[in-house]
Design brief:
The protein has one domain: Alpha-Beta Plaits, CATH 3.30.70. The protein has 6 helices and 8 strands, in the order E-H-H-E-E-H-E-E-H-E-E-H-H-E. The chain has helices at 14-21, 26-32, 70-83, 130-147, 181-186, 192-205, and strands spanning 3-10, 38-43, 59-67, 89-101, 116-123, 153-162, 172-178, 208-220. Helix 4 packs antiparallel against helix 6. The longest helix is centred in the middle third of the chain and has 18 residues, at 130-147.
Amino acid sequence: MVRKVIELIVSASPAEAQRRALEFDGPALVQELPDLAALIVNLVDVQTRLQESAPAHGYAATIEGTFPDESSAAEAANAWEGLFPTGSGRHRYLTGERIQLEYERTWPLGTRSPGVKAIYLVRRPEGVSNEQATRGWREHAGTARKHHDGMWKYVQNGVIHPLTVDSPLIHGIAELHFPTLGDLEERMYDSPAGREAIQREANQLVGQAIPLYCSEYVFHA
């Protein structure tokens, strides 16, 4: 399984943090991280009516770097802050990435991807072991692909361990991409029965989930 470093950026001035998250030295990045397989920056800047029922949070952006193995990811994590000087609070995690549904990217690197990327920061319920949650999440992928009618990409990132001190406890980071805001708001589920099936499995796997509604920028792939 490939490894992904995911950083969550917290800021009281989200617009400034988002601007800085998109400003980094591309050539220096490639030189410092030769094993980098993918680099994505997500700005938490999408307004949707789904936010009305979502927990409050202070996240302004996220940065994702994908690597072929754990050693290259750990090496990259040591150079991370110098490459992405966001000037904000940072929580960084090492994760294992599984792409369960993939879109076909036809737009140029460095430009905003179409639609909305919903990132869910998930904690498992009390009493559910890591093995149980991992097995259930893998099995849930089929249900998600079937019933999230408008979704065109789905990624599961299982948290291996935090890379920064005092990072909030997170067990998994899920990415659900939708080609338009309307697909997110109107086609999250294919039917009432599909919604019930998703929620039934989620109740067994999720103790808490914080959704971040994002604009995605793929800089390296």
